[in-house]
Every structure is written in structure tokens, then in C-alpha cells.
């Protein structure tokens, strides 16, 4: 098994048991540099409504802008973007920190949404669908998730995914969702 294969987890996540939180999705060696992908899960999959798509889009812009301007963290950030299932976001950072180590960063990112007066980059020049934004709903989801994080700071369930065997498709491929 190659070094890279060893880093990619062979488990997948049991979505029926997920609670919102901050989870390590995978750790990769990219040309000798370790990078970690986190799932920042904002809603509980298939149990509560997924995030409104326009609010999701606004949270993508606002929090990406926050993270990439954060003096302490901006050089660590590789990627921030929405999950296709609209239940959360992917965050890719340099290094291999435990989810607990990025708790305060994400809490401050979601808290900061309430101070946004506009959605950055919501113009035809800067966005592929600039009319599809909802700042009010973005603030609602962000405030709710920030409160949830604060209420669960000491709860290990918000940092550790329930694991299951990885799905193999009918034609024998291992299933991935990102
Ligand atoms: Zn956009």
C-alpha cells in the first residue's frame, strides 16, 4: 500500500447517525505536504431540512472571505466550499490538526456572519449566480450553528464521525462523495 493510500480512510460515514459538528473527512499527502479535509456539518442529514441554497451560497462567500482574510489562518486555508447535499461545508487546511484545534476558528467565522451588511462578491463580475443570495437566511443559519457549537464545546460527538464500511457500487467501485 502506498503512503498516500494509507492516509485515505477506508471507512465511510454513517449519515443516519451524524450530528452537526466539525469532522476530519480525510488526510492526504499532496507532493509531500499533508493537507486535511474537514466536513463542517451544519444540519443533521436527512432529519432536518438542508440549508436553503441561496443562504448556503451567501455563507460560502462570507465565510471564504472571512477565512482568507484572517491574519492567523489565511496562509493555512486551501479551500472552503459547500457540500452538494447542502448540509454543510468542506474546509481544506494545510497540516493535520484535530477538529478541536479549529473549533475556535469556525466558531468565530460563523459568529462573524451576523456583522455582514452585504454579501461580498455578489455581483455579476465576481459570481456565477449573483442573484442567488440570501443574507438574512445566512445570518439565521450561522447564528444557529454558532450557538450549537458553543453549547456543545465539550461534546466529543461533534468532533468524531460515526463510521461504517465503505459502500462498493454495483460495478465494484468504491463510493466517494467528494
Ligand atoms: Zn457566488
Search tags:
178 residues; alpha+beta; Gyrase A, domain 2; four-stranded antiparallel beta sheet; two-stranded antiparallel sheet; 4 helices; 28% helix; disordered N terminus; binds zinc ion
What would the average pLDDT be, to the nearest integer? 93
User: Can you tell me the number of structural domains?
Assistant: 1
Ligand kinds = zinc ion
CATH topology: Gyrase A, domain 2
Q: Unreliable runs, pLDDT <50, ≥5 residues?
A: 1-6
Brief digest:
The protein is α+β, with helices and mostly antiparallel strands and 178 residues long. 28% of the residues lie in helices and 21% in strands.
What does this structure look like?
There is one protein chain. With 178 residues, the chain is of the alpha+beta class. Strand 2 (21-30) and strand 3 form a beta hairpin. The chain has a 4-stranded antiparallel β-sheet. The protein has one domain (3-160): Gyrase A, domain 2 (2-Layer Sandwich), CATH 3.30.1360.80. It has helices at residues 3-7, 53-69, 103-112, 135-151; strands at residues 11-13, 21-30, 33-41, 77-82, 88-94, 163-165. The chain is globular, with a radius of gyration of 17 Å. It has 4 helices and 6 strands; from the N terminus they run H-E-E-E-H-E-E-H-H-E. The longest helix is centred in the middle third of the chain and has 17 residues, at 53-69. It is 28% helix and 21% strand. The model is unreliable at 1-6 (pLDDT under 50). Bound molecules: zinc ion. Zinc ion is lined by residues 57, 61, 127-128.
